[in-house]
Write a structure and sequence with these properties.
Two copies of one chain form a homodimer.
Chain A (H helix, E strand, L loop, with lengths): L1 E3 L5 H11 L1 H7 L1 E5 L1 H9 L4 E7 L7 H9 L4 E4 L1 H7 L8 E6 L15 E5 L5 H14 L3 E4 L9 H6 L3 H4 L2 E3 L3 H10 L3 E5 L6 E2 L9 E5 L8 H6 L2 E4 L11 H14 L2
Helix pairs in contact in A: 6-11
Chain lengths: ~260, ~260
Amino acid sequence: MQQITSRENPLVKEYIRLGASARHRAGQGLFVLEGARLAADALDSGARLRAAFFETGVLERHAALVRRIQAQKIPVYGLTAPVAAKMAATQTPQGIFCIAEILDKALSLDKISIYGAYLAVEAVQDPGNIGAMLRSAEALGVDGVLLSPGCADIWSPKVVRASMGAVFRLKVYELQDFCGTLRALRAQGMKTLAATADAGADDLTREPLSGGIVACVGNEGAGLSAGCLSVCDKRVTIRMKGRAESLNAAAAAAILMWEIEKQR
Amino acid sequence: MQQITSRENPLVKEYIRLGASARHRAGQGLFVLEGARLAADALDSGARLRAAFFETGVLERHAALVRRIQAQKIPVYGLTAPVAAKMAATQTPQGIFCIAEILDKALSLDKISIYGAYLAVEAVQDPGNIGAMLRSAEALGVDGVLLSPGCADIWSPKVVRASMGAVFRLKVYELQDFCGTLRALRAQGMKTLAATADAGADDLTREPLSGGIVACVGNEGAGLSAGCLSVCDKRVTIRMKGRAESLNAAAAAAILMWEIEKQR
């Protein structure tokens, strides 16, 4: 196993650059992930690793994972502690890092089942929120997530981590024309719901939510755009007893998906 | 108005230290906040500011807020752009910063209404999760939140920000003896629910949730401790169709509080 002892090693620098730049990730078709669980999740989901890095002191504890990676002819590098510390982006680093190929999420829209349930997310910029939404979507069993331009890059380290690997497994549609797609799905008979903090909107709990459905949530501050609101056939709100406009986007999405899945 | 032009100014250093250290915040009885909305929220909630800092370029746009602060005889400082950049901890800084007195949250437990609904949080360490829980608790209308030792400090800048000021307004009980308090509340007739990812637990949607209730959620990785589980009178789970154990703590808490509030 080759050892990396310099923090200026080109592979280390490439790892850090991939973590920092969405443009570089897109150009290279690569992303990075950290930790034993995400590495195993990635392998389980058929993601192809390009390289794996283990701090020397943790090699023994993670021997099974190392063997699994090496069995796929993927190069594994040993790291000194200072190099591992430079690469770490989590609060409690495990000393395990991978470079992996971005999974092909260019899913054709005709893969959307008009009888399914989907979350559609417009311009949510916080990677933690996007990651949490993907995680909740998978946990609650929706069929997929549609993302507008302007959402956080799903291959950013924070999204991958917050999603707990759901990004590997879930159907995620990165749309160029968000409103146009919603309009097309509505024309095919899907119910299109716009979640809003507007107290005048219909109460979510009184809404029939069965059948093919697309539930839209908007940007953290601005909510859904006028364009998206105009193509949805219904506005719904999570009726709140406390201060209005106060649920964050990920919490609102979780409650929305929960109510939809309860009726399916 | 006094101008601060040096990044080494003692007040600037104190601001940064208060943001970084829970111990220093507790010792001084002070916390920091950033942005016009949080500053106004703090004033609305009766928090006492010790000092306010405005980047010189934004003074005019926020003249009403500046006047409101100065009317309370609170010193307002002008900042050069490099000083403001040093103090900023948000992604899109507004150039507005305050040092404020920690609100007295040492609420007596006899203030807990045994007919109310409370969220109890054990050892949730991520400030974003604690902040999101406080925000959802306020939005959904629960009566208060009980926090165990080991939860993220509610006065950390990330909690204050993620809570969108809910931390100023909500009843938050920082408990020394988490399990003992739960036991006492149960003895007084409150229903004590332990939320768990254990598929063998009772389905949340089949549970009567009216009346006095304390709903407990646990640590991001480990869930609730054995001690807490043993003092609760019921274990409930959010039945999931996707992968088990996959909702994050804040999403699970939002769904839990949503179901409770629907039944009240």
